[in-house]
Amino acid sequence: EAGVAQSPRYKIIEKRQSVAFWCNPISGHATLYWYQQILGQGPKLLIQFQNNGVVDDSQLPKDRFSAERLKGVDSTLKIQPAKLEDSAVYLCASSSFTSHSPLHFGNGTRLTVT
Amino acid sequence: AQSVTQLGSHVSVSEGALVLLRCNYSSSVPPYLFWYVQYPNQGLQLLLKYTTGATLVKGINGFEAEFKKSETSFHLTKPSAHMSDAAEYFCAVSEVGAGNNRKLIWGLGTSLAVNP
What we know:
The complex is a heterodimer. Chain A is mainly β. Chain A is built from no helices and eleven strands. Helices cover 0% and strands 48% of the residues of chain A. In chain A, the strands form two sheets. In chain A, strands 2, 4, 5, 6, 9, 10 and 11 form a seven-stranded mixed β-sheet that branches. Chain A has a four-stranded antiparallel β-sheet with strand order 1-3-8-7, with no helix packed on it. In chain A, a hairpin with a 6-residue loop joins strand 7 and strand 8. Chain A is globular, with a radius of gyration of 13 Å. Chain B is mainly beta. In chain B, 0% of the residues lie in helices and 58% in strands. Chain B has strands spanning 3-7, 10-14, 19-26, 32-38, 44-50, 56-58, 64-68, 73-78, 87-96, 102-106, 110-115. In chain B, strands 2, 4, 5, 9, 10 and 11 form a six-stranded mixed β-sheet that branches. Chain B has a five-stranded antiparallel β-sheet with strand order 1-3-8-7-6, with no helix packed on it. Chain B is globular. Chains A and B meet through strand 5 and strand 10 of A and strand 4, strand 5 and strand 10 of B.
């Protein structure tokens, strides 16, 4: 089966600019996650979708971050405006809808904010 | 709330030596436990998981982990390290959140170096 696809792989922007990341999950996976991973740390959940509905966005900085999952398939994560501390790897993951289904991760987008 | 502690942010072993990565968790309910591996510039990949049943779980690449309820531990082991095992390893526990939704609580990770 094809894995989780993310683009772009790398992005460099200046602070106060905007940026968007795209994710295509594994076909048939109802649950989609966006994680932020700062260098040397574990993944931090930003938002979780179940089909096209938001299940958990408690750690999403909603003043600058937004995400959508149109039609319950692809998803985009946007940052506007970016801050220096947003420099991180943004990981997308998907899973089927069972309580102990493993997450399948994409290779991530490495964002550098200068 | 549940939490995950990985003892040792950096572990270094010689090629062929035993690998032991430690993970302890706190949970008031039977946990689902996971180990993921992250190679440089890649996403995370599932190594193994414990849900129910046999407490010794075998995963990919020769890794295994044992769920010990009395010790609230889920340590990851491999009898003989290979150079290709050098990576970041994350332990995670599944917790039930708002709306009966399960979400993963992650440890901070352990970086494994394998020396020739």
